[in-house]
Amino acid sequence: MKKIIITLLATLSITAINAQNVTQKENESDQFNKWSVEVAGGFNKPLNRFGTSTFGFITPYTVDFGVRYMFNNKFGLKADLGFNHFQEKKGTPNFSSQFYRLNIQAIFNLGRIMNFETWTNSIGLLAHTGIGLGIVENEVDNVGIGIVGLTAQVKISDRFVLTGDLSGMVTTKQLRTFDGVITNNGYGGILNGTVGLTYYIGKNAKHADWYVSNPVSKLEKRVSELEAMNVDTDKDGVVDYLDLEPNSVEGAMVDVQGRNIDKNKNGIPDEVEKYLDAKYKSESGTGSIDDTVKSLINGGYVSVFFDTNKSTSNIESSDATSFILTYLRNNPSANIDIIGHADEVGSEVSNNTLATARANAVRETLIKANIAESRLNVISEGEDNSFNEGAHNLARKVTFKVK
Prior knowledge:
Helices cover 25% and strands 35% of the residues. It has 403 residues and is an alpha+beta fold. Strand 6 and strand 7 form a beta hairpin.
């Protein structure tokens, strides 16, 4: 436990920035919807660039349509189309003018930035600002646009939000006034007030506008991940994600990558070799570790296992094949019988064929590892009926005999 805590603290100090800025953000982005569609309508008030007799009159009407994408629960981007209609007020010369506009705007979710969630879960506030292009359709006048505004939000449901927006726009390079009276290059100004509806798109329950991250749950998840990373299944002192041999014998001496130490390079870990020496050498000291290994191979302690009706070995059996390969490389004068077996399910003919196929499959693997074909002899023993029905998996195997 002490080792886990120390490792945890060290890992946290090294990965804190990356974990918070990358991993957590990626995980969070899957928890909320990002897209929304917005429609609104209301009134506008020209602030200047209007004829003298009509300056400052609140006129109907304004329409806005937008599509918004939130990168996270605080910042986003919106594209919107807008339309303003201007007309005379009572007692002034008649005119009718339209203003069409297209804007790209940055969105700032002030509700999350200012932590509205501490006092409400149904009221939000967005700030938006951006630029665009417009056309004043009186005597066609192309203008540039700068826009800034605030949008109040009232959540109706997880999909719908009622909005109220107040925006100010500045037009540049405007050659005519909005009513077409004065021809002069300058700036125009419009104040828009609208009420609208937002619809959230996506499969998640919440949209980014209302998503509140939970730092406690993030920390708990991160701690769980770190604890999982610090599991040492084979108890060799090297955690699994760094362990190249995660199935070492408990207590065995390993290097920093969890590999068994084999100082004499005979393919047998020193700890295993020490055990075999003590267990199987005669009291007189005769015999060798190679003799012991040979007797273990011939005794069936090293086997390659197969699934039902398969001649491709289980992935778990790769260690057994590797063991035989190492033995043959370290004993170049040794030859070996590769003996195929099958369970008793099926016909005797098919089981003999399957047992041969299994032995040949192991033989081909050893040949591809540069063991000479002349050293490898295939034998089929067919069915092995010494196992009950519940243990047939132990009969589907290949064993070896060193000669």
